[in-house]
Amino acid sequence: MTKHWSEDSYWTEAADRYREQREGGARQLVLDLEAIERGLYDGEGPAYRAMEAMLSVHEHEGMDGYRGAPRIVLALLQILSEQGLNTNHS
User: Fold this and answer.
1) From the CB of residue 64, how many other CB atoms can be counted at a distance below 10 Å?
2) Which domain holds residue 52?
């Protein structure tokens, strides 16, 4: 059985950062598509980690319960919005 997504700080900390931004009044996230594409195929990157997290929702929660799927999506958006923040562009 897959480890539950809520036991992974990658997701819980990103969800916390998202919540903090929303509570601070943020209404938009900006996505740097070039930065996202650079890490998209990395096996430890957000795409594959999201797949594993959603698998844990399917295995542990089903369609009812903790509502992990929406939380993972919001955390993923936060992570993707942060991808280009520390990247220098020429």
Assistant:
1) 6
2) 5-82
